[in-house]
Specification:
Strand content: 15-25%
Radius of gyration: 23 Å
Number of helices: 10
Distance between the termini: 63 Å
Helix content: 25-40%
Number of strands: 19
Largest sheet: 6 strands, mixed
């Protein structure tokens, strides 16, 4: 590091150095001597943050054995110098490619590895005018980011705790006569009071009554009624890291059929959490929840996977689904979120975030209990 803040001079330095070493090993294995990563208007921003520390909405990383360079525009010069693990190359006007060419020259790179699943044809052509040889590494960065280091795990634990504690503090705001949109705003307020953000592009699910049959029932102006179940899927973002949890509550005495569904989903959640370890595949953990729900006659109403990874993005690797026959890596953070959705009746989903360990799971959203809560009893 040539200039900037103290972030990499202290506790963060070993983590960034380890990430840098891992990507260089993979780059060398792919037959390249450097790596190129492009982020514009926050698309692919998590990859840039992961390797450099930079959190701005526009950035380009170029790095190799001699180090790396971060390219960004005038909106972020000061921020980049404070945050970035790499020296800054300032771009002029709105054209980043002369600065990219400068970075390539300074680092002496001849053959770049690129994220071909992220690089547009237009950007690929522009890069081709700077360096004639590059190789695609589709999904490489996502696979590396699936395993979190201890610094990342600590941030995600804090993010999950904020989300869970915010939910518990917010519960008194739920009562008949209020709309889904109103209670959604109250929950966001509780999250932000605790120093976290709410994802701008995230689906904030508040689905009450019959709308609970929609797994992604984004909040509406529907008014809460006595007897409703309300499913709320939400999370916090802290230092760029996501938490993601779902709770379903009853307002007044619940329909007996919905109460039965709740008990089935809660048992499925427990079984899936118990199945999590680094010796279990995503398919096996999914089956722990799915097979139980099917045994109770509701298999056709569990319409999505049991979970997914979280980190710098809301949906990351690994996935907890029937399609994933690979073992869950130790250090991954995944959601466990079984659900049952019945058209005309409503739905139930219960979601926790867990850290995968060699011999089990660490539930990090436990500050919010999962048993059925009946609010505003008669």
């Amino acid at each position: 590091r040539e200039k900037g803040g103290s972030m990499v001079e202290n506790r963060m330095k070993p983590f960034f150095e380890a990430r840098y070493s891992r990507i260089l090993e993979e780059t060398d294995r792919a037959g390249a001597d450097g790596f190129f990563m492009f982020s514009s208007e926050s698309d692919n921003r998590p990859g840039i943050q992961y390797f450099s520390g930079f959190t701005g909405s526009f950035g380009i990383l170029v790095f190799g054995e001699k180090g790396g360079r971060l390219v960004t525009d005038s909106r972020y010069f000061l921020q980049a110098e404070e945050e970035s693990f790499f020296p800054l190359v300032r771009m002029e006007d709105r054209d980043p490619w002369p600065a990219v060419a400068q970075a390539v020259r300074e680092l002496g790179l001849k053959n770049l590895a690129v994220e071909d699943d992220r690089l547009t044809l237009e950007r690929g052509r522009a890069l081709g005018k700077i360096i004639s040889s590059f190789v695609g590494t589709s999904g490489l960065v996502r696979r590396l980011r699936a395993v979190k280091d201890e610094e990342e795990l600590n941030v995600i634990r804090r993010s999950a705790r904020i989300a869970a504690e915010a939910f518990e503090a917010f519960l008194p705001a739920i009562r008949p006569g209020r709309t889904e949109a109103e209670i959604a705003a109250d929950l966001v307020h509780e999250i932000r009071k605790r120093g976290a953000q709410y994802p701008a592009k995230g689906h904030f699910v508040v689905a009450s009554g019959p709308r609970g049959a929609r797994p992604h029932g984004v909040f509406s102006d529907r008014m809460i009624q006595r007897g409703d179940f309300i499913t709320m899927d939400f999370g916090a973002v802290l230092d760029g890291y996501f938490s993601d949890m779902t709770r379903t509550v009853a307002v007044g005495e619940p329909d007996p059929k919905l109460a039965e569904i709740y008990s089935i989903v809660e048992e499925a959640r427990k079984r899936a959490v118990a199945a999590v370890s680094s010796s279990a595949t995503g398919r096996e953990v999914d089956a722990a929840a799915r097979c139980y729900i099917a045994s109770k006659g509701w298999g056709d109403c569990f319409t999505h996977s049991t979970g997914h990874g979280i980190g710098l993005e809301l949906h990351e690797l690994p996935v907890v689904s029937r399609l994933n026959g690979e073992k869950l890596p130790a250090g991954a953070v995944v959601t466990i979120e079984p659900g049952i959705y019945s058209e005309g009746l409503g739905g139930v989903r219960i979601e926790d975030d867990v850290i995968v360990h060699p011999h089990g799971a660490e539930v990090i959203t436990g500050a919010s209990p999962t048993e059925l809560r009946v609010l505003c009893p008669a």
